Amino acid sequence: MSKEQQNKDEIFAEKMAPSDFVFDEKVAAVFDDMVNRSIPGYATILSMIGVMADRYYQAGTDIYDLGCSLGGASYAIAEQLSARDYSIRAIDNSEAMITRLQQRLSEDHTLRIDCRCEDILDTEIENASIVVLNFTLQFIPRERRQALIDAIYKGLTPGGILLISEKILLPDPELNELLIDLYHKFKESRGYSKLEISQKRTALENVLLPETLDAHRRRFCDSGFRASDVWFQCFNFASMIAFK
Ligand code: GEK
């Protein structure tokens, strides 16, 4: 583990005035720790994305990792495809994330990961057999999500797949509250205090906008995906696959 990966997330540890969450340098510096302690099953999700990429990657196509942060999904895919002639486009609109990812990539020239700082709403997706949206769509304004999924569908080759993970809403309010509460217990078990959990929740309120699994399914169907389903879920976090 590199020195950078050991940085502990203490961003919300002290009492502070509420403000919206942003993917700035402070977050990028502790992101590995944050994501591992905040997303139940994160390490499993990444390695399974690698396994699925290995099955569905088509030679001569590109892989897109949209909202790549520090490239967790890209690295997992690169590891699985290391013996093949793959090409990954890792995109994020946080300069802090991309600067750090570039630095990491410069340490290993065997990786075929090309990263760039760009709004994924402007990304031209073409000749893709795999598109990854690992906990990214939830940060896109709701009214722009259909157009993004449409663009992904259009850019996928026949037989291509979309791998997407999201924080989700449950239609039943009681169950929804229960899963949120269990999720907060999970965070406490990972060392976050009640104050950290509540301040982060407030910071994400206007920024991370979850939807139900049905809303996601409907959107995939409306874009033209022939089938989609959940392949992993823990509390209110779910990973889905959609097939072109
Ligand atoms: C992982 N996928 O480790 N354009 C580009 N990037 C964006 C946009 C946008 N419009 N909106 C948000 N992002 C990663 C984890 S984190 C999830 C993804 C989380 C980026 C944002 O800058 C951030 O890096 C990422 O989406 C979301 O597998 O922190 O919960």
What does this entry look like structurally?
Helix content is 42%, strand content 22%. It is an alpha/beta fold and 244 residues long. Strands 1, 2, 3, 4, 5, 6, 7 and 8 form an eight-stranded mixed β-sheet that branches. Helix 2 packs across helix 3. The longest helix is centred in the C-terminal third of the chain and has 17 residues, at 173-189. Mean pLDDT is 95; it is low at 1-5. Residues 23, 35, 67-69, 72-73, 92-94, 97, 119-121, 134-136, 139-140 line the site of ligand GEK.
State the CATH superfamily name: Vaccinia Virus protein VP39
Sequence of secondary-structure elements:
HHEHEHEEHEHHEHEE
Strand element count: 8
Small-molecule components bound = ligand GEK
Task: Specify the helix fraction band.
Answer: 40-55%
The DSSP helix count reads 8
Poorly predicted regions are 1-5
Total domains: 1
Instruction: Work out the strand percent.
Output: 15-25%
> What characterizes the major β-sheet?
8 strands, mixed
Oligomer classification: single chain
Please describe the structure with a list of short key phrases separated by commas or semicolons.
244 residues; alpha/beta; Rossmann fold; 8-stranded mixed sheet; 8 helices; globular; disordered N terminus; binds ligand GEK
Question: Which SSEs are present, and which pair or pack?
Answer:
Layout: H1 25-38, H2 42-56, E1 62-66, H3 72-80, E2 88-92, H4 95-105, E3 113-117, E4 128-134, H5 142-155, E5 156-169, H6 173-189, H7 194-204, E6 211-212, H8 213-223, E7 227-234, E8 237-243
Parallel strand pairs: 1-2, 1-4, 2-3, 4-5, 5-6
Antiparallel strand pairs: 5-8, 7-8
Helix pairs in contact: 1-4, 2-3, 5-8
Ligand GEK binds at residues 23, 35, 67-69, 72-73, 92-94, 97, 119-121, 134-136, 139-140.
